[in-house]
C-alpha cells in the first residue's frame, strides 16, 4: 500500500515508518521539524529512514491546508497514519495556542484531505491523557472521558470527537489509538526516561513528581508499532450491536473505533527508577516535588478490546525495555 505517516521525524513516527517500509509498503513521511525539542535528534531519525528504499520525506506542516491537500492529490495515498501533534502535557500550560494549531486545526486538515481523497482508513494518535480525572483502574475504552485535566488532553479528546463526526457524516473509517507512556530507543528528550538517564549519567539530581507516588503504564515502542500496524490493517466497520439508547464510547454505528495501547501494568515510578539505576550501575540523587498541574497520579490500560480486535496486546517488561533504551542512549551520545 501507499501510506502517509505524519510526524515521521518524531519518536513513534520514525519507528512506524520503518516498520511499514520494511514490510514492503510505500511510505511518504511528513514533518515540520519544529524546535519543541532538539531538531538534531529529528534529523538523525530521518537519516535512518532515508536509507530505506520505500521511504520518502516531505517537509510539510499539517497546519498548511493547501499544502496538505496538494500532497494528497499528488500522492494518492491509500491509508494514513496520523502521528503529528504538539505533544507534552506541561508545555500546554505555557503555550496553549500551539496545541490548538497543531492538534485541532492540523487534525481538521488531515480529516478533510482524507474525506476528499477517499482514504480507506485513517489511524490517528490519541492519548491516555484523555482519561483525565478518572481514577478507576484499569482505564477502559467504555469509560466516560469528559473530564480532561490539561489542554493537551482536551485536544486529544477533541480529535476522537472530530474523527467520529467524519466517520458518521462521510463514512470515513477512523481508528484512534490511546498511547500509554511510550518509551524506548530514539525516544523524546522531554520524557521521564530520557531526562532521568541524562541526569544520572551527568551526575545531576532527578526531579520525581508527586513525592514519588506516581504509577505509569510504561509501553515499549516496539509494542506500540505492532499495535499501530495491526490496527491499520483492520478497517473498522459499524458495530451492529451499538445501542443508541445506551451508547458505548468504545463503539459506534459509524466505521469508528478507539483502542488503548498500553502494557496493562501500572508500575510505580520509584520501581522504574530503580530498574534504570541498576542498568546504569549508578544511584540517582532524587528531588521530590508535588504533583504538577495537568498531571495525573496513575495510569493503567485495559487492553482487552485491542487484543480482541487484532490479536495482540503489549507485554514487554520494563526491565527489557529500559535496557534497550540505555543501550541506544549510550551508543547515540557515546557515553
Attribute tags:
335 residues, alpha/beta, two-stranded parallel ribbon, 11 helices, 13 strands, 41% helix, globular
- Mean pLDDT score: 96
Taken in chain order, the helices and strands follow as EHEHEHEHHEHEEHEEEHEEHEHH
**Share in helix:** 40-55%
| Biggest sheet details | 7 strands, parallel
Shape: globular
Strand order of the largest sheet: 3-2-1-4-5-6-11
Rg, Cα atoms, Å = 19 Å
Number of strands: 13
Helical run tally:
11
Task: Please tell me about this protein's structure.
The protein has eleven helices and 13 strands. The protein is α/β, with parallel strands linked by helices. The strands form four sheets. A seven-stranded parallel sheet has the order 3-2-1-4-5-6-11, with helices on both faces. A two-stranded parallel sheet has the order 7-10. It has a two-stranded parallel sheet with strand order 8-13. Helix 7 (192-201) packs across helix 9 (269-280). The relative contact order is 0.14.
Write the layout of secondary structure elements.
Elements: E1 2-6, H1 11-22, E2 26-31, H2 39-49, E3 55-59, H3 65-75, E4 79-82, H4 91-94, H5 96-116, E5 121-127, H6 151-170, E6 174-179, E7 182-183, H7 192-201, E8 206-208, E9 215-216, E10 219-220, H8 221-233, E11 256-261, E12 267-268, H9 269-280, E13 286-288, H10 304-310, H11 318-333
Parallel strand pairs: 1-2, 1-4, 2-3, 4-5, 5-6, 6-11, 7-10, 8-13
Antiparallel strand pairs: 9-12
Helix pairs in contact: 1-2, 1-8, 3-5, 5-6, 7-9, 9-11
Amino acid at each position: 500500500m501507499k501510506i502517509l505517516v505524519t510526524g515521521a521525524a518524531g519518536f513513534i513516527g520514525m519507528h512506524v515508518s520503518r516498520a511499514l517500509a520494511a514490510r514492503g509498503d510505500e511510505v511518504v513521511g511528513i514533518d515540520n521539524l519544529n524546535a519543541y525539542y532538539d531538531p538534531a535528534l529529528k534529523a538523525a531519525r530521518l537519516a535512518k529512514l532515508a536509507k530505506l528504499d520505500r521511504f520518502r520525506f516531505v517537509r510539510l506542516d499539517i497546519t498548511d491546508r493547501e499544502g496538505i491537500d496538494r500532497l494528497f492529490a499528488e500522492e494518492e495515498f491509500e491509508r494514513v497514519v496520523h502521528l503529528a501533534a504538539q505533544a507534552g502535557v506541561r508545555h500546554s500550560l505555557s503555550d496553549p495556542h500551539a496545541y490548538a494549531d497543531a492538534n485541532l486545526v492540523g487534525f481538521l486538515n488531515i480529516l478533510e484531505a482524507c474525506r476528499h481523497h477517499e482514504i480507506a482508513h485513517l489511524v490517528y494518535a490519541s492519548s491516555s491523557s484523555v482519561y483525565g480525572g478518572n481514577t478507576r483502574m484499569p482505564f477502559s475504552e467504555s469509560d466516560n472521558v469528559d473530564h480532561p485535566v490539561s489542554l493537551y488532553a482536551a485536544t486529544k479528546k477533541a480529535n476522537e470527537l472530530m474523527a467520529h463526526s467524519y466517520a458518521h457524516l462521510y463514512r470515513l473509517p477512523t481508528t484512534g489509538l490511546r498511547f500509554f507512556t511510550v518509551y524506548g530507543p530514539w525516544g523524546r528528550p522531554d520524557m521521564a526516561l530520557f531526562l532521568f538517564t541524562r541526569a544520572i549519567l551527568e551526575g545531576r539530581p532527578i526531579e520525581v513528581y508527586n513525592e514519588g507516588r506516581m504509577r505509569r503504564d510504561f509501553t515499549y515502542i516496539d509494542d506500540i508499532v505492532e499495535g499501530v500496524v495491526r490496527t491499520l490493517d483492520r478497517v473498522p466497520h459499524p458495530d451492529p450491536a451499538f445501542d443508541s439508547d445506551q451508547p458505548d464510547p468504545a463503539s459506534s454505528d459509524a466505521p469508528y473505533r478507539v483502542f488503548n495501547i498500553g502494557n496493562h501494568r501500572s508500575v510505580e515510578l520509584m520501581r522504574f527508577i530503580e530498574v534504570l539505576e541498576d542498568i546504569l550501575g549508578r544511584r540517582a540523587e532524587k528531588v521530590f516535588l508535588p504533583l504538577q498541574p495537568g498531571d495525573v497520579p496513575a495510569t493503567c490500560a485495559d487492553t482487552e478490546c485491542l487484543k480482541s480486535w487484532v490479536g495482540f496486546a503489549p507485554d514487554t517488561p520494563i526491565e527489557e525495555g529500559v535496557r534497550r533504551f540505555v543501550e541506544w542512549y549510550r551508543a547515540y551520545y557515546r557515553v
